[in-house]
């Protein structure tokens, strides 16, 4: 169901989905489809946290339970990458050319991440197969963009009313869509360009634009908005203080990290983002946006912040966002209302509060799974503590206003 800003909805059946197999209940059926010569592309949508890759080292986690199992029992895979490795092994043994692995997930270099995961998983059980995959399988990078909020009971009811079909999980989305894809396919591809896909040689400029401008803004909406007691993204985006803060942050600390993007004016792109964010019909929740904090902040915000630290550029606004995040995780907004817990970070924020005035106050940013070694950087550390103190003293709204003119 597409929900337009003017309030009208378009509901239709996605005709390209013609079959469904649930791997835990039908392993052989899934592998049969994956090994069929007619299967030319296997796409992945497993979220940015689903690649079993360490955010700090960039290495595949070979000690994870799923990876260990699939290495010991490659013909009985449990993980997505175990399935891909086993399917490629079977295709190779049968003399069938390998399919393309096309990641559609929201992370930098998603094709590179997919390659790392698949090759690393293969290497754990069959190094020769891993070499063959590296030499013969294509892993194109791509950037995908469409806001798809959590499906509600009302959405399920509406789809059934319009279509006469009960679907337990209809997809709700905004009308905007963008898909930028590297044209690298082992066995060819459908004519994607005929349905609006941009086929390019290098997806990186588009990818950074989307991740740091859109997804970074989503993190800001989620963390500032929840501290101020808001529930929906459109309310946070329409708030003058939040929107001005985000636009200033993007201008000051995000745009300098981006490369020119062919055919796109970045300031016009930002204007379009706010048109999308304020679409009330989508009713995207701030809890959904904040849910992606642990997996998303390192890629959407902290990556650019690291570049600024290395180059001696401003970091205050991005650091303030980290401080706001840490306070929201405590579970109370500034009006005393409850903030829904969407991650497992509360113990780090509680330790931060208990350690005020001492080394313990760095507990949140010493969570290496998210911040790596950022807490060891004196400039980041001192700026974070300064912003944390200012937020406690001034409150979010006043601090956001002050940051517009604060020294960096």
Automatic annotation (TrEMBL):
EC number annotated for this UniProt entry: 1.1.1.17
Statement: the UniProt record of this protein carries the keyword NAD: yes
Record keywords, A-Z: NAD, Oxidoreductase
Record's catalysed reaction(s): D-mannitol 1-phosphate + NAD(+) = beta-D-fructose 6-phosphate + NADH + H(+)
Any GO molecular function: mannitol-1-phosphate 5-dehydrogenase activity
Family membership noted in the UniProt record: Belongs to the mannitol dehydrogenase family.
Name listed for the protein in its UniProt record: Mannitol-1-phosphate 5-dehydrogenase
Species name: Actinomyces urogenitalis DORA_12
Lineage: Bacteria, Bacillati, Actinomycetota, Actinomycetes, Actinomycetales
């Amino acid at each position: 169901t597409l929900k337009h800003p003017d309030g009208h909805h378009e509901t239709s059946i996605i005709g390209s989905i013609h079959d469904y197999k649930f791997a835990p209940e039908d392993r052989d059926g899934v592998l049969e489809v994956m090994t069929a010569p007619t299967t030319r592309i296997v796409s992945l949508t497993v979220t940015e946290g689903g690649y079993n890759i360490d955010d700090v080292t960039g290495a595949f986690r070979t000690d994870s339970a799923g990876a260990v199992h699939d290495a010991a029992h490659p013909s009985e895979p449990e993980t997505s990458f175990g399935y891909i490795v086993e399917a490629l092994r079977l295709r190779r043994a049968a003399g069938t050319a390998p399919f393309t692995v096309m990641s559609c997930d929201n992370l930098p270099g998603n094709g590179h991440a997919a390659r790392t995961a698949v090759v690393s998983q293969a290497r754990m059980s069959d190094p020769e197969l891993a070499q063959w995959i590296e030499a013969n399988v294509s892993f194109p990078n791509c950037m995908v963009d469409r806001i798809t909020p959590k499906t509600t009971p009302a959405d399920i009811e509406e789809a059934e009313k319009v279509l006469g079909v009960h679907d337990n999980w209809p997809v709700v989305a905004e009308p905007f869509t963008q898909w930028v894809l590297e044209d690298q396919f082992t066995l060819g591809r459908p004519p994607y360009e005929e349905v609006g896909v941009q086929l390019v040689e290098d997806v990186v400029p588009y990818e950074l634009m989307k991740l740091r401008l859109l997804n970074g803004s989503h993190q800001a909406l989620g963390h500032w908005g929840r501290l101020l007691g808001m529930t929906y993204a459109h309310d946070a985006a329409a708030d003058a203080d939040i929107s001005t803060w985000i636009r200033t942050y993007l201008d000051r600390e995000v745009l300098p990290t981006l490369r020119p993007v062919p055919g796109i004016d970045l300031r016009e792109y930002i204007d379009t983002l706010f048109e999308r964010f304020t679409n009330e019909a989508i009713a995207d929740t701030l809890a959904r946006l904040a849910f992606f904090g642990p997996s998303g902040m390192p890629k959407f915000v902290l990556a650019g912040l690291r570049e600024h630290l290395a180059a001696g550029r401003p970091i205050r606004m991005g650091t303030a966002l980290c401080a706001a995040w840490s306070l929201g995780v405590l579970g109370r907004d500034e009006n005393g209302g409850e903030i829904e817990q969407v991650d497992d970070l509360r113990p780090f924020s509680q330790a931060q509060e208990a350690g005020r005035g001492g080394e313990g106050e760095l507990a949140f940013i010493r969570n290496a799974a998210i911040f790596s070694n950022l807490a060891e950087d004196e400039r980041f550390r001192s700026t974070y503590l300064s912003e944390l103190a200012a937020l406690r003293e001034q409150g979010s709204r006043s601090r956001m206003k002050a940051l517009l003119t604060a020294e960096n």
